[in-house]
Amino acid sequence: MARKFRFIFVGVVALSLLLAACQPAEPVVVTQEVVVTQEVQVVTTQQVNVPVSFAMESARLQAVKDRGQLRCGVNSGVPGFGFLDANGQFVGFDADFCRALAAAIFNDPAAVEFRPLTAAERFTTLQTNEIDVLIRNTTWTFGRDVELGTDFGPTTFYDGQGMMVTKASGFTSLDDMGGATICVLAGTTTEQNLADAFAARGLTYETLVFDKSQDTAGAYDQGRCDGLTSDKSQLTGLKTGLTNPGDHAILPEIMSKEPLGPVWAQGDQQWGDLVRWVVYGLIIAEEKGITQANVEEIAAGATGETGRLLGSEGEFGSLLGLDADFMVNVIKAVGNYGEIYDRHLGPEGTNIVRTGSYNDLWTRGGLIYAPPWR
Amino acid sequence: MALPHDSAARPQRATDIGALLRDTRFLQALAQAVFVLLVLLLVRWLIGNLTANLGAQGLDLSFSFMRRTSGFVVGEGIPSNRTDPFYYQYVVGLVNTLRVVGLGLVLATIFGILAGVAMLSPNWLLRSLVQAYVELIRNTPLLVQLFFLYFGIILTLPGLADRITLGPVVLSNRGFFIPRPVPHVGFPAWATVSALALLIGVYTYRRRLQIRVRTGAETRPATWAAALIVGVPLLAWFILPGQPLQLELPELQGLRMSGGLRLTPEFAGILFGLVLYTAAFIADIVRSGILAVTHGQREAALAVGLTSTQTLRLIILPQALRVIIPPMTNQYLNLAKNSSLAIGVAFPDLYSVSQTIFNQSGQAVQMIALMMGTYLIMSLIISAAMNAINARLRIVDR
């Protein structure tokens, strides 16, 4: 009898432990309804309050603040964008946007938990709330935006799919590549663009699909494939890791549009606003010539848009649930957009030419543009 | 028994409940009922949680997305096109997995039995080599072995331009090629004669076996059958007019080899990786199975004058099989499930294709459920087959 009860007791305890373990760590609730009731409240009680009362705290922002860390999904194998360096630090263009968000929320660029993700895992981790934001050279497409329950932020890098071949192969254009074997990464838009590009030219080809971009590059390096296809920016990075980078060339064709930027789970508009405006803030900072070095100096006597950006005018920070001078912290931590670009993708980094490309500032003929901060 | 409305019965009923609560059978049933209820609640809660979370992001759990156009091409297996729907690509992946598992099971069994017998060989060198192989393979992870085999051995072969040619066989890091036999003018006549020889061979085998069982005379059924089945087609090859088969040699054409049969590096990588790994375990199972047959059986067989080959074939192996089959089932199941590591060496198996599908469609939950279901069915079929064999081989009590 006693043994029987012990069995039941153990069973119940085990079950409750299981139940507790399965509870999502931070259930993220859609805050839209809250918005409505608050607005109604303001109207009926005739409260003439400062606009701060309209600022709806994002449920996710609250969760991030409580946790004390931002969970950011990144790449760990693409030099220039997201890469684990010799000291075990995530470095790269994308990783710095994670740090910028952490600086905006905590005034501490180190308050980030980087989650290295494969291309195949990334959307599932977003859908299951494992990460707060995904900044992992992710292409903005209709399907992903509409169907996957994700929202896309401003494009931080305009990319296009290219093809790397060996110089010895003599290929000068995709049209030469009939019958070729192409190495490609699993679960990317690349696979579909490749199919489209070859079908449009009426050429046959074979694909070799790997799970990790390192393996893709490894098999290409060993001569298993005639071509390696990926976003051009990634190809530039992967090329530096090959045995003899000088033996390889990237073909001139661009097979697709690949706008890359931050992604978050649908359902928390306020969180989306925060991510979006931190990115825009970095672009405006470059526009205004505000750099890591001079940001404090400029912030001291700033007026106009610079003043609003750096928090000396208006209530912009608190509207997002952040400190008034959050952009000062961000720029102090990572610099402006141009500085982030130069650090990782400029001549000292993977050397992707910016001048004259889409990734130049709009004032210089590029597509990097931010709406006004007012 | 007291009537329910009898006032005098009330205290009696109270003691009934008391007695019921002390009844072990009732308590056992109650505990089980509570447990089932809790499990059901847990499952309901998990599914509710899942649909609620997915619903919040506008996703549902239907499988209709499988009818959409895939937009990608599976690299190997039955031909696929970018306009094929997702479910078709899933079938392509499934067939690739079945190819690897089917061939892998056969090869691992043959290789494992040979290695197992070799581990008991009186030849010191052979025994030690096989033992070293078994220990090395059993004590390192399969994925590491696959990477080593694929990136470290197969891909380090030269490219097609400087391919290695060993007689009719071509080795390169684009695949292994052998000539392909193609039917020629004399094929119909030769094939008819060979088919007849096969039929007569089988008939002769059965007939001679029957005679041997009935009379005890040595009629050599296997020798006769082999002579008929191999000898007649061989003779016919030279006697009949017109060449029956022509060998199509692989030749370099542009970027690829055309003609011949090709074994891709990826297929070779996953197949040989799985075979080497599983055979090591099978070898040890076979070794222990043979050792489990008591020594007296062997001594008795030798004493009645059987040769050592006959002893192994007729006395030891049939008895060892009874010990070998159950653990073998586990190894077969492992091989089938380990085939999902194929994505590591870029072989487009079920798992690899499913991963691409769930990325392109974003429907991770359905794809993983579908994949689990498919692997489950495959494993259950293997189990059922092995259980059937086991049932046939067990000692029949008379």
Query: Percent helix among the residues of chain A?
Result: 40-55%
Chain pair forming the biggest interface: A-B, 55 and 50 residues
CATH architecture title of the domain at 86-144 and 263-393 in chain B = Orthogonal Bundle
Would you tell me the overall average pLDDT of chain B?
Answer: 88
Q: Which CATH top level class of the domain at 86-144 and 263-393 in chain B fits?
A: Mainly Alpha
Number of beta-strand segments of chain A: 15
Description:
The complex is a heterodimer of chains A (374) and B (398). Chain A contains 15 helices and 15 strands. Chain A has 374 residues and is an alpha/beta fold. In chain A, the strands form five sheets. In chain A, strands 11-10-12-9-13 form a five-stranded mixed beta sheet, sandwiched between helices. In chain A, strands 5-1-6 form a three-stranded parallel beta sheet. The termini of chain A are far apart. Among the domains of chain B are: 2-56; 86-144 and 263-393, MetI-like (MetI-like fold), CATH 1.10.3720. In chain B, 67% of the residues lie in helices and 7% in strands. Chain B has twelve helices and eight strands. Chain B has helices spanning 9-22, 24-56, 86-118, 124-138, 142-154, 187-215, 221-239, 265-292, 295-303, 308-338, 350-361, 364-393, and strands spanning 164-166, 169-172, 175-178, 180-183, 245-248, 251-253, 256-258, 261-263. In chain B, the strands form three sheets. In chain B, strands 1-2-3-8 form a four-stranded antiparallel beta sheet. A two-stranded antiparallel ribbon of chain B has the order 4-5. The longest helix of chain B has 33 residues, at 24-56. The radius of gyration of chain B is 30 Å and the shape is globular. The chains are: A alpha/beta (374), B alpha+beta (398). The interface between A and B is large, with 55 and 50 residues.
